[in-house]
């Protein structure tokens, strides 16, 4: 194993396989894709927190937890004969090479904006089967992240929302958002539900624009 390019990664994969093998851990053997969702969400949130805290020890730990989730799901699928971790890696390699023709092809994109434009152009071809710009946005995303994503997609079909005045810094903006939530709470209103209701209205506007 020491001669392998990534001996510690191979050791982690072997550890997971041992846990899920007959005679291993009963809990690990009992898990499914669906039962692991709650842990994937939790570990992803903890990874975000580690990134924001800037603590390398925490970042190493939380990256490992998320990596383990990927390995876990791949092993479940492999056991059922559906696909393997190698299939996941192969698909992602193909996707990344395809999305970066300015690196692996002859397309020129020398600025970040040009790279984003190239990425979007390639993605549009890959996802040509989609009937709406809003397809592919996970509905389970947190409200603010979902709103940001939906607004960006809506702009592609000419649907915009009048922006409210905001402070100059994220610290001030965070305080303002927190105050809005506090105000909603004082009035007995659910800020998250209200935002998702507004997003449903935005979705209707996008559908109308696309049908036209």
UniProtKB/TrEMBL annotation:
A single GO BP: dUTP catabolic process
Superkingdom per UniProt: Bacteria
Location of the NTP pyrophosphohydrolase MazG-like domain: 31-104
Molecular function as annotated in GO: nucleoside triphosphate diphosphatase activity
One Pfam family hit: MazG
Name of protein: NTP pyrophosphohydrolase MazG-like domain-containing protein
């Amino acid at each position: 194993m020491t001669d392998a390019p990534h001996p510690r990664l191979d050791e982690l994969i072997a550890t997971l396989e041992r846990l899920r093998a007959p005679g291993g851990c009963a809990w690990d053997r009992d898990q499914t894709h669906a039962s692991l969702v709650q842990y994937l969400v939790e570990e992803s949130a903890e990874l975000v927190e580690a990134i924001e805290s800037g603590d390398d020890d925490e970042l190493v730990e939380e990256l490992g937890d998320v990596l383990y989730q990927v390995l876990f799901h791949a092993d479940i699928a492999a056991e059922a004969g559906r696909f393997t971790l190698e299939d996941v890696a192969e698909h992602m390699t193909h996707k990344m090479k395809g999305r970066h023709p300015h690196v692996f092809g002859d397309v020129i994109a020398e600025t970040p904006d040009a790279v984003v434009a190239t990425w979007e152009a390639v993605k549009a071809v890959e996802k040509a089967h989609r009937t709406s710009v809003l397809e592919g946005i996970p509905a389970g995303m947190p409200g603010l992240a979902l709103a940001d994503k939906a607004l960006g997609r809506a702009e592609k079909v000419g649907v915009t929302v009048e922006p409210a005045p905001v402070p100059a810094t994220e610290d001030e903006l965070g305080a303002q958002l927190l105050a809005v939530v506090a105000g909603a709470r004082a009035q007995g209103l659910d800020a998250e539900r209200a935002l998702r209701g507004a997003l449903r209205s935005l979705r209707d506007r996008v559908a109308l624009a696309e049908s036209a």
